[in-house]
């Protein structure tokens, strides 16, 4: 018996991923393309779930290097693997099986192994073209501009429905993304971490099935970071009807630097025209009428506060101060909280700290003094009662005469002290 001293290898001129389009009711035979040696262990799987003897039936049979399906059904579509192992290593071959019905591929098994649950209606040959789950008000999906500083993470969403479930393909500047560089690229959310300026570009997601196709594009701009001055901008709370001011200052000597204020869009829509995306959140520019203050530049400090007069609940929310130049950018979030100014109620945050000390500290001292006085008076009263009780006991004892013995005198019992000699 020959025993290999090397890891398993694929047969010459074979690929580790084969795609097969099979007509419904036709047989399927998958041959694991590995050099056969007696010491090999083989494990078959479908959609990342192991196939063993319990899976064998009159329709599916596994014989070591061969997996055979006598009659293909829609449920047989999926990603099959044969994993071959010996004492020196392992190798894997994959088969992507698509099922045709009347010449149309109804379920195309994407190489996304995480799709274990098939979402197609097996009782009907009808289907639906892909459609974005969330749209903007006019039903159109336009390019979305995404601005992110270096070193951050961005999520690009491409959420859609369809029957059968649509396949997805991501492209950057027209070229299909490399999984080696971007990781999983068949998901409806593309996550790009630790951004570099080289990640700048147009990212397009294409969704398609046998009934149609749709696409949308993100314009991703990755820039250097600009430094904010101090802790600007900061969260603020303001009473309804008062003026809200949020400062935004940045250190720069670049004359191209500009400051813009944006407000978060409180909506679940995945796509909205002209929205600016930060991370996974959408923002829109604030109308100029809401920004009465202009930019000011002094000693390399550029400032532009956000000012709202006579605020209402409409101004409450999350804002971003966006700083951009020709070479760099940065942003920071701030919240504006509107407080209802109810009659007779004053927010605690508006109490002057000095007034707080003047009132609270004397009250605490007065309370402490009253406590000591109470304890002292209570102790004295307790001692007085105790002394009074002792004096009363002595007086009672002194008033009691000692008992005198009785003697017979003229046939009568009388105290001895009454008999005179």
Give structural notes:
The chain has about 425 residues and is mainly beta. Among the domains are: about 15-120, Immunoglobulin-like (Sandwich), CATH 2.60.40.10; about 130-225, Sandwich (Immunoglobulin-like), CATH 2.60.40.10; about 230-265 and about 290-340, Immunoglobulins (Immunoglobulin-like, Sandwich). About 10% of the residues lie in helices and about 40% in strands. It contains 2 helices and 32 strands. It has helices at about 180, 355-400, and strands spanning about 15-25, 30, 40-45, 50, 60-65, 65-70, 80-85, 90-100, 105, 130, 145-150, 155, 160-165, 165-170, 175, 190, 200-210, 210-225, 225-230, 235-240, 245, 250, 260-265, 275-280, 280-285, 295-300, 300-305, 305-310, 315-325, 330-340, 405-410, 410-415. The strands form 8 sheets. Strands 11-18-30-29-23-25-24 form a 7-stranded mixed beta barrel. The N and C termini lie far apart (about 145 Å).
Brief account:
Helix content is 12%, strand content 41%. With 421 residues, it is mainly beta.
